[in-house]
Amino acid sequence: MSFKDIFKKSFLEGFATGELTGRVILAALGIAAVLALYIFFVYRVMTRKTFYSKNFGIALVGVALITAALILTMQSSVVISLGMVGALSIVRFRTAIKDPLDLMFLFWAISIGIICGAGMAQIAVILSVGLTVGLLFLDKLPVAKAPMILVVNAQGLETEDAVCQAVAKYAKHYSVKSRNVSAQTLDLVLELRTAQGAELVRAVNQLEGVQSVSLMSHDGEVSF
């Protein structure tokens, strides 16, 4: 027997696993399905303040199950595994990820499918629980507060100074993001942080020449 034959035999024997019975397959897919549903509900909770896509949540469940089935199939034969690698390498996904957190959930679902398909469900459970605790903790961590946007529509160009003085009483730091002047109409957009939003709106609205005031908050990106 040549070295090539010995290497080939040892590789195939090392790749081979225990026989896949129906019970093993159903157990792996069942655990993957339970954990995929768990990811589905965690995704719903974590995206309560941002754009939520139910279709993406359903896709997470499908990705986990499909990945688990692929891993189970690849364990049966090295030829099949190499064929799947070649087939999957030509797949191209062009759907844009709207939120970086969605990318994490997608990778989480794929990882659950791989781990359950490899027969290490304990690791998948520990990963899911630990990751959920970490996500909830980081979500509640007060790192920074998103600024508010104040939109003021007024008559008279001299109104800007009065608006800035009123804003300075309720916000330590503010900046004018937009200034639109048309004839005698002034539109101001200011970025600020304040805990007295209602008082600020009332104070600005009472200024002479001010026609409308809007104060908006958002949960998007935070500027330091």
Provide keyphrases for this structure.
alpha+beta, 4-stranded antiparallel beta sheet, 224 residues, Alpha-Beta Plaits
Give a structural overview:
- The N and C termini lie far apart (69 Å).
- This protein has a four-stranded antiparallel β-sheet, covered by helices on one side.
- It is an alpha+beta fold and 224 residues long.
- The chain folds into two domains: 3-140, no CATH class; 148-217, Alpha-Beta Plaits (2-Layer Sandwich), CATH 3.30.70.1710.
- It has helices spanning 3-15, 22-46, 54-74, 78-88, 100-117, 121-140, 159-170, 197-205, and strands at residues 148-155, 174-182, 185-192, 210-217.
- A hairpin with a 2-residue loop joins strand 2 (174-182) and strand 3 (185-192).
- It is 58% helix and 15% strand.
- The protein contains eight helices and four strands, in the order ααααααβαββαβ.
- The relative contact order is 0.11.
